[in-house]
Amino acid sequence: MSRYDFSSVEAKWQKYWDEHDTFKASDDHSKKKFYALVEFPYPSGHGMHVGHIKAYSGLEVVSRKRRLEGYNVLFPIGFDAYGLPTENTAIKENIHPRIVTDRNIEKFTNQLRTVGFSFDWSRVIDTTDESYYKWTQWIFLKMFENGLVFRDKTSVNYCPSCKVVLSNEDSQGGKCDVCHSDIIQKTKEVWYLRITEYADKLLEGLETVDYLPNVKLQQQNWIGKSTGAFVDFKIKEQDEKLRIYTTRPDTLYGVTFMVIAPEHPIIQKYRDSIANIAALDDYKAECAKKSEFERTQLVKDKTGVKIEGLTAINPITGKEIPIYISDYVMMGYGTGAIMAVPAHDTRDYDFAKKFGIDIIEVIKGGDITKEAYTGEGELVNSGELNGLSNKKDAINKALEILEKLGCGEKGVQYKMKDWAFNRQRYWGEPIPIVHCDTCGMVAVPYEELPLRLPEVENFEPGTDGESPLAKIDSFVKCKCPKCGRDARRETDTMPQWAGSSWYFLRYCDPKNDNEFASQEALKYWMPVDWYNGGMEHVTRHMIYSRFWHKFLYDLGLVPTSEPYAKRTAQGLILGPDGEKMSKSRGNVIDPNDVVAEYGADVLRLYVLFMGDYEKAAPWSESSIKGCKRFVDRVWSLTDMLTEGTEYTEGLRSNFHKTIKKVTEDIEAMKFNTAIAALMTLINDIYNAGSINKAELGAFCTLLYPFAPHISEEIYNSVFGTVLSEQGWVSYDEALCKDDTIEIVVQVNGKLKAKLNIAVDADKDSVIALALADEKVKEATDGKNILKQIYVPNKLVNIVAK
Ligand code: ANZ
Ligand code: ZN
């Protein structure tokens, strides 16, 4: 057979699938369904990244297999298209963000199509389309109606360069997520969604879903439920109590001072009684320059000022204790005040050492002359708590005492804060609220949705952090929907995360003009059976969207309490140098170049073969060449073709075993070992010297989810039918019993694992199996693999540094 001309074959099958609606999800709700979801891309001007290809290839393979297994598969794609980079391009090039968005979406669409992903292109959604954002606004108004939307003046993270208020998550490390400028603190009245009201539901829901363990853990930490107590400390000579939050009421006898946040309102209230108010004001002004991130850093050198004029009284011992202000206590957590126990809290310890405050040991076990002891132990110096050694018992006993004294009670706190839901920029969903002097905040009537973005001349935000919409009189001036008097429209837009908080619902019924999706479609398709995406989205995006979904569930508008039944995540693709791909490092691989040189099938195979799907792996030109060789060998299989409707004696068990392996590995997302098994099988076929039709059909079917174009072409040339329209292959368990042999795996000469491999398995597949072993992964974690030695049927030695 001639050399494989991938570009004509790939174009041919992409056209065929398109013209035959091969991947269109059927509206026949009697079939068993499978809903596979991948994170829809933000269509940036840079076009697609190889990371997108890896992210989508996982469920692409699963979806193709499931269709052959007879499922009605929904595998949709869309564009999360509101956002700053587009708006910044629009400003720079002086063109409308709509045009920039359309241009970028077209670019992404072409790229996705050339890779041959089996998306249902009839269901594409674009969050900036008015038929879509109409429903984003509609859900927002439902939340408003139900008391989940409010405005509040707070200190916000503000990016002076992007001129926007940012959430804590968008300003991690004290830097703007978009432009990396330093964030400053600013007081502003902003919109919030009351996500904290759903904190417990979001935590409890995690018990019912199948997420990767680290995905669950990250969500739990992000919600950050803490159980403890509120305790009131009386202020000496004032009719005042200072309320604190503590997780350790058992350490009450060790309290030797208190610390409040520099912004704590008690300072303003007692200004006149405080002798050193000027020093406190100065300190507060210093702190305003720091981001929350800097303040929570564990720096040993603590700063603070003692309040001269206010003294607290420990409710349990009656002792007088000083009060300080310090930036290590946040106003936004607990009550903004703490009881400090230097003997058993590291931050308090550092502070006490610096300010010469007493340190009283109340828990035995450490050496408090050297450092704080944070472990458990027997209570001492603690009155009626003395002798208790179980932390839980001691906490309960302390709570009992506090409650009896009437100065404390159990309490719960969450790290998660309410969701700052606003942006002062143009390219976002307008918030559909009207401000009326008489009626206050009034919802835009549902029938007036979508509230469209007006045309503007200039997309630049105002220097005061106001949205450019504020400059458009015709938009701002309106009548109050309630009383008809003159009123002003809200000019903030929604944040980036709004559109992606419910997109999985819209895919179920993307063209519905009367509802965000019909109940019937939702009942059939929801929940998403399998959601795959990046680890960077498992907190914000996933928690926000679970919140919106749970809210809609409470209204009876969606049929399931959780949106995603299962969640997995792919690892990053690193540059060839092992570093994160970035423009500045010049190590970015463009998927277009790879497709042009090797074809889409090779690219698809390679991103799944390069390593464990969940782990980061560097790009390697030599491994991609290995995938190319494999594809060429597949193409040449027809040179050895013979007739036959059953597997031949010599290859029968190889086929059954490979079918079992590929079938199971795909479900476990072990794509690399599935591909390795196919590489082994093709070796066996070449060794046998011939392949019959039955075998070739099975081989093409197994390869199809990974490399669909070449599989379709060969299959079609031999059988005259279309592989996408056939069924998956089955195996007989009895024929899968292996001729196996045990080999040892060493890392740097040390025994790490024993593996059962098929006798005479080829080197690549044995090495892949060895690298997939947990113990081997542990031993090579974070190291570069320098050499892989295989002594057939005996041992693998991996040299890693
Ligand atoms: C006394 C104590 C003794 C504490 C001890 C800890 C150890 P989580 O688990 O994160 O909820 N804290 C309370 N509010 C704070 C605020 N606004 N800013 C900074 N720190 C604050 O932690 C709760 C603990 O963090 C509380 O328990 C309090 O210190 C501190 F041996 O109280 B603890
Ligand atoms: Zn009014």
Produce the secondary structure layout.
Layout: H1 6-19, E1 33-38, H2 50-68, E2 72-74, E3 78-79, H3 84-93, H4 97-115, E4 125-126, H5 130-145, E5 149-159, E6 164-166, E7 184-193, H6 199-205, E8 210-211, H7 213-223, E9 225-235, E10 241-246, E11 257-260, H8 265-269, H9 277-288, H10 292-296, E12 305-313, E13 320-325, E14 337-340, H11 346-355, H12 391-405, E15 408-414, E16 419-420, E17 433-436, E18 440-443, H13 473-476, E19 477-479, E20 486-489, H14 503-506, H15 519-525, E21 530-533, H16 540-554, E22 566-569, E23 573-574, H17 591-598, H18 600-609, E24 617-618, H19 621-635, E25 641-642, H20 649-667, H21 671-688, E26 691-692, H22 693-703, H23 708-719, E27 740-747, E28 750-758, H24 763-772, H25 774-780, E29 785-791, E30 795-800
Parallel strand pairs: 1-2, 1-21, 3-4, 8-22, 11-13, 21-22, 23-24, 25-26, 27-30
Antiparallel strand pairs: 5-6, 5-7, 7-16, 9-10, 9-12, 9-15, 11-14, 12-13, 17-18, 17-20, 19-20, 27-28, 29-30
Bound molecules: ligand ANZ and zinc ion.
Ligand ANZ is lined by residues 226, 245-248, 251, 329-330, 333-334, 336, 338-339, 341, 344-345, 413.
Mean pLDDT: 94
Bound molecules: ligand ANZ, zinc ion
Radius of gyration: 31 Å
N-end to C-end Cα span: 44 Å
- Taking pLDDT < 50 over at least 5 consecutive residues as the criterion, the unreliable ranges are none
Note the total helix count. 25
CATH secondary-structure class of the largest domain: Alpha Beta
The total tally of domains equals 4
Overall shape: globular
What's the CATH H-level superfamily name of the largest domain?
HUPs
What is the architecture of the largest domain at the second tier of CATH?
3-Layer(aba) Sandwich
- The percentage of residues in β strands lies in 15-25%
The overall strand count is 30
Helix/strand-derived class?
A: alpha/beta
Largest pleated sheet: 7 strands, mixed
Helix content: 25-40%
The name of the CATH topology of the largest domain is Rossmann fold
